Amino acid sequence: MVLKTIRSATDKWAHKDGDYAFMFEPYTGDEIIALDCEMTDLDPQKAELVSIAAVKIKGTQVLTSEKLDIKLQKPESLTGDSIKVHRIRGVDLRGGEVLPDALEQLLHFIGNRPIMGYYIDYDITVLNRFIRPRFGFSLPNKTIELSQSYEAKVKRANPELQPDLHFEKIAEKLGVPMVGQRHSALGDAITTALMYVRLLKGPVPV
Fold first, then answer.
1. Structural domain includes residue 8
2. 41, 93, 132, 139: most buried, per Cβ within 10 A?
3. 61-71 and 49-58 as β-strands: parallel, antiparallel, unpaired?
4. Residue from 57, 89, 88 nearest 190 by CA
């Protein structure tokens, strides 16, 4: 955490007059970005991006009309094993975005808003592997982990309970329908956003 804070401060100084200075400004609004990426590997140091999706949450409203949904050009590491998870084949990525253009779109969509997701640190780690070499900084945004928010709320109601933190089980407990196909970036981003809003609105069933 200390290292991240120091690096973010260094990045802010380096980019204070640059095109991405807005990324480092304190955020004072009421919007959050729900983010999900699909990758080729579970190892964040090896994974390549296949698709990126994000949707805005404003207060307790999921703004599905304000979303980002990008499929990338086929990475070399796309294999049968990863296809079994996200079901995105090489043929599905024809005409996909080149990674630098996709990352630029993502930065402008996110801005300096907080980023929320399910195991979001994994997505951020992979994204930063590609963002830092190209743009000279890592994402400085505050992050919110859905599973931790859910666990904390459940335990406030019942401290002895250890909740199941699997994605599908959290959605089931919160009464949130799965949007689209599981492991599709946009479907998971919207589902995650709906779960987060449900956490904000009322008690969690245990």
1. no
2. 139
3. antiparallel
4. 57
Question: Are 114 and 33 a contacting pair, CB within 8 Å?
Answer: yes
DSSP string, 161-173: ------HHHHHHH
Look up the domain containing 187 and give its range. 29-201
- pLDDT tens-digit profile of 52-90? 999 999 999 999 999 999 999 777 666 656 554 555 655
* pLDDT the model gives residue 206: 66
Which range, of 27-36, 40-49, 54-63, 83-92, averages the lowest pLDDT? Answer: 83-92
The C-alpha atoms of residue 199 and residue 113 are separated, in whole angstroms, by 19
Domain count of the fold of the chain: 1
The answer to whether the beta carbons of residues 189 and 54 sit under 8 Å apart is: yes
Phi, psi of 153 (to 5 degrees): -70, -40
E strands, 13-131, in order = 31-39, 49-58, 61-71, 115-117
Which of 69-83, 107-121, 187-201 shows the lowest mean pLDDT across its residues?
69-83
Q: Which two tokens stand for residue 92?
A: 């599905």
- The residues near 31 (Cβ < 8 Å, ≥ 6 apart) are 56, 57, 58, 113
Residue 81: give its domain's CATH number. 3.30.420.10
| Phi, psi (rounded to 5 degrees) for 72 | -100, 165
